[in-house]
Amino acid sequence: MNESHFSLPPKCTIRPALKQDIKSIRRLVWSAKLDPTQLRWEQFWVIECEGKLAACGQLRNFSGAQELGSLVVAKDWRDRNLGTYLTQYLIQQATEPLYLECLGKRLAAFYSRFGFVAVSVQDLPQSLKFKFGLSQLAKILFRIPVTIMQYQENFL
User: Fold this and answer.
1) Which residues are within 8 A (CB) of 1 and not within 5 positions of it... i.e. 6 or more apart?
2) pLDDT 10s per residue in the chain (156 long)?
3) How far is the C-alpha of 98 from the C-alpha of 68, rounded, in Å?
4) In this predicted structure, what is the pLDDT of residue 87?
5) Are 76 and 28 spatial neighbours (Cβ–Cβ below 8 Å)?
6) Computed from CA positions of residues 35, 85, 96, 148, in that sequence, does the dihedral angle turn out positive or negative?
7) Are 41 and 58 in contact (CB under 8 A)?
8) CB of 68 within 8 A of CB of 79?
9) What is the Cα gyration radius of the chain?
């Protein structure tokens, strides 16, 4: 990864989500207009700052793969590198090939900084083809700019 490592701001900690975090996680995900389905608090990591949930991200498990998803930073905490920190942290936690899908070129550029590269549906493991294939259908039908990406560990 060619991105320097960032530290969390003072009074911020990263931790696995707890059951009582699900309402705050849902609020963050809805505020970013992300897919609110399949939010499982057990798969989330959160950054808590000054006693409030400032960011969240999910590592979803599939057969032979993981998906980085639902990564959101609360509006009041943006531009403090929380998204960068959380992305780096989730990459380190991944134990299987890591994929994600993102809307728009700006997000694709953000994730490419960490070693994610665009891949086609045909290049996906079988366990992700149906899920991400639906996104590609939306891309065609509704002209939504969806990019599927895979993390390349040896990114330089």
Assistant:
1) 88, 91, 114, 115, 155
2) 444 567 899 999 999 999 999 999 999 999 988 877 789 999 999 999 999 999 999 999 999 999 999 999 999 999 999 999 999 999 999 999 999 998 878 999 999 999 999 999 889 999 998 778 767 666 666 667 789 999 998 654
3) 7
4) 97
5) no
6) positive
7) no
8) no
9) 15
User: What is the Cα–Cα distance from 78 to 87, expressed in whole angstroms?
Assistant: 14
Q: Residue 55: what residue type?
A: A
DSSP-derived secondary structure for 50-93: TTEEEEEEEEEEETTEEEEEEEEE-GGGTTSSHHHHHHHHHHHH
| Residue whose C-alpha is closest to residue 53's, from 73, 29, 30 | 73
The 10 Å CB-count burial string (b at 16+, else e) for 84-117 is: bbbbbbbbeebeebbbbbbbeeebbebbbebbbe
Q: Find out whether 83 and 47 touch, Cβ atoms under 8 Å.
A: no
Q: Which two tokens stand for residue 84?
A: 């960068």
Q: Hey, how many other C-beta atoms are within 10 angstroms of the C-beta on 38? A: 12
Structure tokens at 34: 């992300």
Question: Kind and range of the H or E element at 115?
Answer: none
